[in-house]
Amino acid sequence: xxxxxxxxxxxxxxxxxxxxxxxxxxxxxxxxxxxxxxxxxxxxxxxxxxxxxxxxxxxxxxxxxxxxxxxxxxxxxxxxxxxxxxxxxxxxxxxxxxxxxxxxxxxxxxxxxxxxxxxxxxxxxxxxxxxxxxxxxxxxxxxxxxxxxxxxxxxxxxxxxxxxxxxxxxxxxxxxxxxxxxxxxxxxxxxxxxxx
Length: 196
Hints:
Radius of gyration: 18 Å
Number of helices: 5
Helix content: 25-40%
Structural class: alpha+beta
Number of strands: 8
């Protein structure tokens, strides 16, 4: 209807879109303790190996690595490419991450471990910010925050998924309900499931 006013064009609103996205957040367990024991050069090599293992598993299932934050990795499934089975892809990638990261040996002969949070929800995909390798698209909504909170709640070598993700998975994976959790930034307790 041409008589209707055009939607407001704030910064980047013109190319923003709403989309359901599954967000995966992976973090290395005990990295602070490790960084205190390792030579910076060795630590750098270890973090790169870890990031490569995580990014490789994510890429194999069509995920998009949005950001490396030290030993934290933020990835999106169903963005930029949309997938009907984004939740399944994210869980398969997470299982792959645990296996591949577990192959990395620390100098004290222990294995690297990761913890992973996965959440699905509607987000607003905004404009591209930054340039070159630092370029990223802004994704706004509580889903990335929920994935990060679930990751922080997870134990070593554990994958926790949100209620929406769990609903989308149907009976594809064996999941164990871990109860309701008070998470920072969320008004109501949040249910979480552990991938067995």
